[in-house]
């Protein structure tokens, strides 16, 4: 299995290519020095066979071509990784739906939650847990096959509003035979930044860094706007 490509690995590969090129140059200089000495000290009546050093020259040329190819590949890799980070910056300010069992609640904005059960559930409980694993919110989810969408408005079981922070979401789904079904969970959040970990871009959502590969889709967050009629009415009322 191929290893993940990172900036660190790309930098190491580029360094190794440089070392190989320097070593090839040193070896070629040594070869030319030895060849010159041999030619100077050969018996004129029985000259040295040129086949051997010709083959060595061909080998040097082949290695040099391979190193040059590696340099070009290293440049392409570095360019691709740079473009990946630039691409990730375009997500900042967008609302993302991403695979995670954790969600971030900012204290005011409801969080979209989607889930897909491995089967056809007849009972679904959605649980919101704090960082200690305690259930702080509980509500019933939609049953049936396929993707289901719900929203957590931030209300806790005690009737109070949840504080901003990271919470866990758990889907307890049961089919008609009382079998527990596994579920894939999607949550939403607004991306406020990008950071790099081991050369890979991560999207910052709340207090978490989300791998860009976990993002299913992004969209512009909904904003509340005031219409001109509402503004005119407020101005008229204040007069």
Tell me about this structure.
The termini are far apart. It is elongated, with a radius of gyration of 32 Å. The model is unreliable at 1-8 and 224-239 (pLDDT under 50). Strands 1, 3, 6, 9, 10, 11 and 12 form a seven-stranded antiparallel sheet that branches. The chain folds into two domains: 8-89; 95-219, Immunoglobulin-like (Sandwich), CATH 2.60.40. It has three helices and twelve strands; from the N terminus they run ααββββββββββββα. The chain has 239 residues and is an alpha+beta fold.
Key attributes of the depicted protein:
239 residues, alpha+beta, Immunoglobulin-like, seven-stranded antiparallel β-sheet, five-stranded antiparallel β-sheet, 3 helices, 12 strands, 32% strand, disordered N terminus
Topology:
Layout: H1 7-40, H2 51-89, E1 95-99, E2 102-105, E3 111-117, E4 123-129, E5 135-140, E6 148-152, E7 165-174, E8 180-181, E9 183-197, E10 200-205, E11 208-211, E12 215-219, H3 228-238
Antiparallel strand pairs: 1-9, 1-12, 2-7, 3-6, 3-9, 4-5, 4-7, 7-8, 9-10, 10-11
Helix pairs in contact: 1-2
């Amino acid at each position: 299995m191929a290893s993940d490509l990172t900036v660190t690995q790309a930098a190491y590969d580029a360094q190794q290519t440089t070392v190989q090129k320097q070593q090839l140059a040193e070896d070629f200089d040594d070869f030319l020095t030895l060849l010159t000495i041999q030619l100077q000290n050969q018996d004129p009546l029985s000259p040295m066979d040129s086949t051997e050093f010709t083959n060595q020259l061909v080998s040097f040329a082949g290695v040099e071509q391979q190193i040059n190819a590696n340099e070009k590949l290293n440049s392409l890799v570095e360019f691709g990784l740079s473009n990946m980070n630039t691409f990730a910056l375009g997500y900042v300010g967008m609302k993302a739906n991403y695979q995670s069992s954790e969600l971030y609640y900012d204290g005011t904005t409801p969080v979209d939650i989607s889930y897909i059960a491995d089967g056809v559930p007849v009972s679904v409980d959605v649980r919101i847990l704090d960082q200690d694993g305690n259930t702080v919110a509980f509500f019933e989810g939609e049953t049936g096959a396929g993707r289901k969408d719900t929203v957590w408005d931030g209300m806790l079981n005690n009737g109070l509003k949840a504080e901003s922070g990271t919470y866990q979401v758990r889907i307890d789904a049961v089919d008609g035979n009382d079998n527990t079904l596994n579920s894939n969970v999607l949550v939403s959040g607004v991306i406020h930044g990008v950071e790099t970990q081991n050369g890979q871009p991560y999207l910052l959502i709340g207090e978490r860094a989300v791998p860009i590969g976990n993002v299913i889709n992004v969209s512009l967050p909904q904003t509340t706007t005031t219409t001109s009629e509402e503004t005119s009415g407020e101005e008229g009322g204040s007069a």
